[in-house]
């Protein structure tokens, strides 16, 4: 660390976290810079994708996602009903919150929603056991076909990301690209061993007014966070209730999240600025 001029981290919060957990790093905190990841906008573009039912932008997101949702329901054998569709796309590991995902499946179905889970790892067998408990249910699908990940993003009304911890997270960024509302939980105990950094990119649409104001030029919207284990219930209930009780508001949220810029444009400039700052510092030291 003594020889390093600058070092990037993929999260603003991760930068602070590293200094607290390691006293060796703390004196060098000024060298750490949080730069949030971006996504490749040429991949998974709902406007230029030739394989989706209706190409869409934020201006016709309701029409586009409705067609994609019906196509996904038909492809997976779900009942083609006007129900909130919760998508979960993840590696099934402890980090991703396996127990929270299981709980969320029960909660979403209990609220009259549909659930599609695209998961990977040996844990998938444990999740498929859940299907035996819903033998007569046509509102739950568990799949492992990676090639249909875009279909899940397109067709889901909301994407659940209940991770125990995330350095940055890309699922929520991709979800917003497709106009799907990310549903996450928030851990307010910043001293905890595992802290989700999703709130670098996902702000609570109801409560995080300060963050919204700070991001006036690039407002980062979305639902939904809470500080306790039952935060998944809290967030998911709010999202599903919004879908049922105020559909026009929910659709406006889909439009708003889709209009956010999560490309590599800004992060790339931040990395260049960091590089040039390091070069400048080195030149000054040499002189």
From TrEMBL:
It is an enzyme of class 2 (transferase). Its EC number is 2.4.1.21. It catalyses: [(1->4)-alpha-D-glucosyl](n) + ADP-alpha-D-glucose = [(1->4)-alpha-D-glucosyl](n+1) + ADP + H(+). GO terms for molecular function: alpha-1,4-glucan glucosyltransferase (ADP-glucose donor) activity. It comes from the Eukaryota. Transmembrane segments: none annotated. PANTHER family: PTHR46083, STARCH SYNTHASE 3, CHLOROPLASTIC_AMYLOPLASTIC (PTHR46083:SF5). This is starch synthase. It comes from Cucurbita argyrosperma subsp. sororia.
């Amino acid at each position: 660390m003594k020889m390093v001029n600058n070092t990037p981290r993929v999260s603003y919060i991760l930068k602070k976290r590293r200094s607290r957990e390691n006293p060796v790093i703390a004196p060098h905190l000024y060298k750490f810079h949080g730069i949030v990841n971006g996504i490749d906008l040429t991949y998974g573009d709902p406007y230029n994708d030739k394989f989706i039912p209706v190409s869409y932008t934020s201006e016709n997101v309701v029409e586009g996602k409705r067609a994609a949702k019906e196509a996904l329901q038909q492809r997976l054998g779900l009942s083609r009903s006007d129900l909130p569709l919760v998508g979960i796309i993840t590696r099934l590991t402890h980090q991703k919150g396996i127990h929270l995902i299981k709980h969320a499946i029960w909660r979403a179905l209990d609220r009259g929603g549909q659930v599609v889970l695209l998961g990977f790892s040996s844990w998938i067998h444990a999740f498929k056991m859940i299907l035996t408990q819903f033998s007569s249910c046509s509102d739950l699908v568990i799949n492992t076909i990676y090639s249909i990940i875009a279909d899940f993003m397109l067709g889901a009304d909301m994407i659940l990301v209940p991770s125990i911890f995330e350095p940055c997270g890309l699922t929520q960024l991709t979800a917003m690209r497709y106009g799907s509302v990310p549903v996450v939980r928030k851990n307010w105990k910043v001293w905890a061993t595992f802290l989700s950094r999703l709130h670098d990119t996902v702000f609570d649409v109801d409560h995080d007014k300060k963050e919204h104001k700070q991001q006036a030029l690039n407002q980062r919207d979305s639902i939904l966070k809470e500080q306790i284990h039952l935060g998944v219930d809290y967030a998911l209930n709010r999202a599903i209730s919004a879908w049922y009780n105020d559909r026009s508001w929910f659709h406006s949220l889909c439009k708003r999240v889709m209009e956010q810029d999560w490309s590599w444009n800004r992060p790339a400039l931040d990395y260049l600025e960091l590089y040039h700052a390091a070069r400048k510092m080195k030149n000054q030291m040499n002189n």
